[in-house]
Amino acid sequence: xxxxxxxxxxxxxxxxxxxxxxxxxxxxxxxxxxxxxxxxxxxxxxxxxxxxxxxxxxxxxxxxxxxxxxxxxxxxxxxxxxxxxxxxxxxxxxxxxxxxxxxxxxxxxxxxxxxxxxxxxxxxxxxxxxxxxxxxxxxxxxxxxxxxxxxxxxxxxxxxxxxxxxxxxxxxxxxxxxxxxxxxxxxxxxxxxxxxxxxxxxxxxxxxxxxxxxxxxxxxxxxxxxxxxxxxxxxxxxxxxxxxxxxxxxxxxxxxxxxxxxxxxxxxxxxxxxxxxxxxxxxxxxxxxxxxxxxxxxxxxxxxxxxxxxxxxxxxxxxxxxxxxxxxxxxxxxxxxxxxxxxxxxxxxxxxxxxxxxxxxxxxxxxxxxxxxxxxxxxxxxxxxxxxxxxxxxxxxxxxxxxxxxxxxxxxxxxxxxxxxxxxxxxxxxxxxxxxxxxxxxxxxxxxxxxxxxxxxxxxxxxxxxx
Length: 467
Known about the structure:
rod-shaped, four-stranded antiparallel sheet
């Protein structure tokens, strides 16, 4: 998906944060709904207990004394009266909801199952006669004798209970959800919990993905320097196994390249001796034309042996990295070719030095210029600098190459057809050596045909921190 981050760290963070946010939303929803029910139950229990106490008190008094007691208890939020007509018993399920059912159940529990009780829903707050005095300053009592300022979301009930002598006492009441809204403390608790888990998750994800980043960096450095220091074999068991396997692979590769280089060095040394003897014998030939052919063949053989050895081993690895004045290097190459009667044009500029191996980079560019001049008579060096990378293009006006030849151009000893034959000189290793040097600097070398005529070699070298 395009919305997902590319890195493993980013994807794990998105998954964890998404799960945590959903979990917190579900927890908040459950807290709100469960708390609402608990508060209604608690408020209903208090009111039911108060009604039960009043009923028991009224049952213990003679009828003449009951009105005095009712006048005492007739205060917000409970209106008590003795002269109301009996209410009709509602049909089963009529107007019932959670609050009605809960309050009726709690009330029957407080008064006993044998008590005759009628509980109905009321549409408005109870009225008091005479009206009570308003209470200040919190606005708990309403103005104008209407009763208290009830909390929004509460429920009004009318309750009738039969006394022992058969008379009925009526209670107009209000069951408040108390403060059903999510309190600030609960909200802060959820936020602190979410923040703590997010921080711990980020630390855990970074701890898990950190070794992968180190392994990726080491793998990239291995391509630039086979003798790169080994990875530290610490951390979780899986990371230790991966680091150990990587170090073993690096040691085997280094050993293989070292053994191959020693073999090729020995072969080169052994081949130079017979080539030197053949050169001396060729000099003794009286036929000048034949002697010239022998000498050219021997020089070509010696060049092939030398360049093959340099191709198979990375001679630039031993050269220390240092800041390179790229423009001075390119101008030096241009002057060298000018001394040989070759034309090299320099375009563009860069003022910032580039960390690298100057001799190796010089050889890389020289190989590219040799190819450009050999097949296109003259070459152009184009420099394009940026914050992330330095791009050097070597352009010629030669015949170019087919797409199939471009794909094989970096293979050892490959040479194109037609004008790119052995008679033009070279061994077919220059481009391979140049690409090895570019990759040893963390860059890349590409070839492509120009729009009009000729070939373009694009050397890309990254700047520190720009990868």
